[in-house]
Q: What sequence folds into this?
């Protein structure tokens, strides 16, 4: 089956620093990738839709200057949390939509647990 | 507006009991997709099923079964003879065909605890 990887799987950083999270589709091409955030005991909330070669589309309430998304190739999207603060501590999950499927088949990465101290 | 509601926040059962997780959705689209995912403590989402709006047939996969009823906008999930390994958070999700690339709207999730 299709595989999506995320790196790193967990990261601890200090307040004020930036952290980059990678999302890769390993065996398929993905024009569209999605970034979700999940706080403890809560559901997944879509942050943004990442489109290869164009600007990401952010959901209402998500600061685009704080959560920088780059989708430079058909297999890689990155999420950079800039000037991270403790309230950004969360579980970040990406998913990738397989270009080869018309029925919106998408695959999830294993997630990245971010802790900001 | 699109919305998914999982009214059951937590369910606790004893092993071998049957359990049904409820999911009610709202959408204005006629073409949409419904999903169920399992999220064990590790956090990784496990895909369970996808259903399109034109296929109302119920589905059975081993101990899992799904009941899709458009008339009540529900897509319920039943685990038969539950096992401890079924303990996880289960999410129901909706994707509309007309939105951007098929983004998913998740319900609040139901935490299932199966006790031995």
A:
């Amino acid at each position: 089956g299709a595989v999506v990887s995320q790196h790193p799987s967990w990261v601890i950083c200090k307040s004020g620093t930036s952290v980059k999270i990678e999302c890769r589709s390993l065996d398929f091409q993905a024009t569209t990738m999605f970034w979700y955030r999940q706080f403890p005991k809560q559901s997944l909330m879509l942050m943004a839709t990442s489109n290869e070669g164009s600007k990401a589309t952010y959901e209402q309430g998500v600061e685009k200057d704080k959560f920088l998304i780059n989708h430079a190739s058909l297999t890689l999207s990155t999420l950079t949390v800039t000037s991270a603060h403790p309230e950004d501590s969360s579980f970040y999950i990406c998913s990738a939509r397989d270009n080869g499927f018309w029925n919106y088949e998408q695959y999830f990465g294993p997630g990245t647990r971010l802790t900001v101290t | 507006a699109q919305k998914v509601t999982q009214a059951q926040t937590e369910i606790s059962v004893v092993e071998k009991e049957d359990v049904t997780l409820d999911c009610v959705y709202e959408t204005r689209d006629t073409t949409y997709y419904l999903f169920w995912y399992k999220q064990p403590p590790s956090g990784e989402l496990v895909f369970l099923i996808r259903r399109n709006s034109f296929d109302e047939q119920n589905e059975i996969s081993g101990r899992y079964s799904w009941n899709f009823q458009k008339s009540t906008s529900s897509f319920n999930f039943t685990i038969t003879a539950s096992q401890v390994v079924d303990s996880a958070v289960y999410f129901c999700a909706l994707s509309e065909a007309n939105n951007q690339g098929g983004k998913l709207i998740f319900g609040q999730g139901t935490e299932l605890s199966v006790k031995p």
Observations:
- The interface with chain B takes residues 31-32, 34, 38, 42-46, 49, 51, 57, 91, 93, 95, 97, 103-108, 110-111, 113 of chain A (CB under 8 Å).
- Chain A has a mean pLDDT of 92.
